[in-house]
Amino acid sequence: MPIFIVLSKLTDAGxxxxxxxxxxxxxxxxxxxxxxxxxxxxxxxxxxYDFVNIVEARII
Length: 60
What we know:
The protein is α+β, with helices and mostly antiparallel strands. The protein has helices spanning 12-20, 24-34; strands spanning 3-8, 37-44, 51-57. It has one domain (3-57). The chain has a 3-stranded antiparallel beta sheet with strand order 1-3-2.
């Protein structure tokens, strides 16, 4: 499967959820796997984006 880099931002509500429930990241990754997206690596970053995700995904 092809490998992609995904840049993502949290909303204010998303940030609050992550702060109160850090395991939410793993829950989201499981939902992505059901859509044929496998999280290979995930990094928290500073600046315009909050996360850099390296994923393997099937293109439909």
